[in-house]
Amino acid sequence: MQENKVQNSYLPLFRKYRPQSFKDVIGQEFTVKALENAIKLNKIANAYLFCGPRGTGKTSSARIFAKSLNCMEGPTVTPCQKCRSCLDVTNASGLDVIEIDAATNRGIDDAKELINKVQYAPMNGKYKIFIIDEVHMLSKEAFNALLKTFEEPPKNVIFILATTEPHKVIETIVSRCQRFDFRRITIDDIVKRLREISDIEKINIDDEALYTIAKNVSGGMRDSLALLDQASVLGTEKKITKETIEDLIGKITFDVLYNLIFDILSRDIEKAVQDVEKIYEKGSEPRNFIENFIEFLKNIILILSSKNDDEAKNLTLIDIDNIKKVKNEPLFNQTKIIKILDKIIEYYKEIKISTNPYLWAELAVINVCSVDDKMPEKSVSVQKTKELPPVIKEVEIKEEEIKKETPKEEIREEIKEETKKTDIEEIKKEAPIETKEEIKPSLTNENDPAKIWIEILNKVESIPAKFFYSGVGKLVNISQNLITLGFVNQNAIIQAKSDSKYNPLLKAIKSVLGNEGNIEFITVTKDTKIIDTKLNVKISTPAQNQTLKTNSEIKENIEPVIPSKTEIKKTADEETDISNKENTKNYTKVTKDMLEAYSGRVIE
Which end of the chain has fewer CB atoms surrounding its CB within 10 Å, N or C? Predict the structure, then answer.
């Protein structure tokens, strides 16, 4: 009576149809072939490492391998399934094949106990086999305790380690094992196996429902059988469909997401938000909803880019009718949907960490309603219309004539003079110009390098950088947006290139000369001609915002000859010292301390 109760007791499908021989293992052909050949050639290693995603057959393969080695008719690749050794492995009992859960037996004491068990000889079979599941959970001390045993175990002792996270297993253990990687099982293999089991169990389910199961289990056969088992109780009265499985796993249906994207592409914010509310009311969490929506948008892009309907069906697992529905909808623009997908992914990052994910889901939908279908503009400073007004054409013709008749070094000045005579505002009215980046700022002192340099230094935000370049640096030349700055030695140039000084200067240069502005540093010699710039430099502190001046006024068109490096350094020190003494009365204590410490040397 008790035996009948045990026999009639319910077994979940993933346990009932667990592989019992190598031919039952799905989707792991390479690993199965390697283990079978090891048995046939009698090349049995002391330790094996089986790693891969959950539900792909690691523990089942370890049991089958143990059963094949200890079968009374073996070692054989086709165990009899009837002898005492085979039945012990099938029922997870017996003393020769010991399964250990490393998640609950992970300490040093458990490792010592395992080492003690290794000393005992097998009782029924040829080998004593230890299957350690989730081996990555062992502590570092336990791993180290097992090292010697793994390397030189007693005769006829085999270790089979299984893990989903092989990177957590220490390298010294991995190096002592033969490693086999179990890959995710393909959708087709899962569907084929599910159909076989459904027919045996008489589960009323269609193929689309099986595909939906296979697609949502991340390549794990155990998970797919568990989901089929759960769905089987719903198929007693009517056939289990794709919609049934989607409701079961909480996945949003195609039609719901289709209506949502249609409202978004129609820029109907009110309807789109209502669609989100309906999804939320049905119990779908914002994170789950956004994940489903991202997958849906990916499928729409694949459909729109596919050459034919059959190809689209294979890529997306969406039925032909819905594929045609997508392709025939004029609102479905691939470029626009790609932009929507990019924005949804950005919001998904916030939803995962937000305390109010529903709000972020609504904001995501509201935002994407305003996405346009224009292609990104090319990265150019100015784009002109095809048809230009006569004024612009005349300027362009004039420019071409200048280029033909005038040497290159004179072209720039001639074009500048021509531009000054042109009414820019009238040109803009007659021919709007699309701009992606800001047009280069106009200079008030284009012909005076000293004044341009003053304007740049006044825009340097870092006070140490401002004093360094104005005191130690010497302006040599400004030509075609390139500033040449001289220093007395290589050490000063190295300091000038440091991030704390170079970045504020480059930023100031670009704000004055435009994005093409740049700077180079050289070492000055006796023959180097420098431009005298005793500067009016504006320096702001957090406490004040005043304009301070040195005693010397700007002297134009003076090109002093530097007799020696020592005198250059001395001149820079004297100028900086005078400027500091006269200006420190206007600064806070922090700035005064900094200026007092500055004596021509570089301050970081």
Answer: N
